[in-house]
Specification:
M1 Pyruvate Kinase, Domain 3; 35% strand; 7-stranded mixed β-barrel; pyridoxal phosphate binding; Pyrv_Knase-like_insert_dom_sf
Length: 322
Amino acid sequence: MSGASWAAYVGASAALALALAVSAALAWRWGGRRRRLQRVGSVAALFLYPVKSCGGAAVRRAELTALGLRSGDLRDRFWLVIKEDGHMVTGRQEPRLVLISVSCGNGYLMLSAPEMKELRVPIKLSRKNKVHNCRIFGFDVQGRDCGDEAAEWITSFLTTQPYRLVHFETSMMPRNSKDIMPVFRPTDKVAYPDCSPVMIISEASLEDLNTRLEKKVTIQNFRPNILVTGCSAFEEDSWDEICIGSVDMKGTMGCPRCLLTTIDPETGIMDRKEPLETLKSYRLCDPSEQYLYKSSPLFGWYFGVDKTGTIQVGDPVYKIIK
């Protein structure tokens, strides 16, 4: 065999070995089942909303846990504003909640809002703090009280009635998504989100909506966890199973939209009309699914978590082809 032929043979063998190694790695990752991956986009942004209905935190990298995204001490919707009787308070009742920005550092959750001094709440609360039985959409879930200073701060900012801030701890029992929406699986669980650990929207879907609106809206109106670029409008609705980074997720149902979408993220003023009315003109469910969505328009898609891991901005989004 000539030198050139030998070099070609070695090169081909190396390429074949690499292909076999990749194939073996994929087969190992999928538990021995060989499945084809089709790239459908990439991650444009990641968001966590530590306090339900308050401002979001954009991160470059996050861990996806069984209960949603986590970045350091920040966890998605692990804090909740409640009335003194334990019932949840969201932007539906108090639109100005969206004006509260949230961050963390040195073991503290930090809240800031217009004309308010920054509030610092310990991430790890004293075991002496009261545990409340909270009520979210008719279901019970616990939350440890964040203290009188936090309660006074929230109450002072909203100026309507006394409120308290509570924190979900990992030792507490999460809510079952299936109890809230029957299409979820018994393994899908949440702390304070409405019903799902993950919600995904594509940039193209937002762009499509904005072509129909006189006053444009931003992604902050819809509060997704993952914003995807590089796909067509509403393509996310068709993703049955996807993988991103080291994470696998199961597409479950559309996100039924409510008055929360009509709150201006910059002013905290609820319009009560747009973009909700426009969405109702072209994003209502099929009549066969009205038992699930009723009259709510759909925008964004809920996902359950099949495999936990890490996601970062720029990661390819793959649809799993069985």
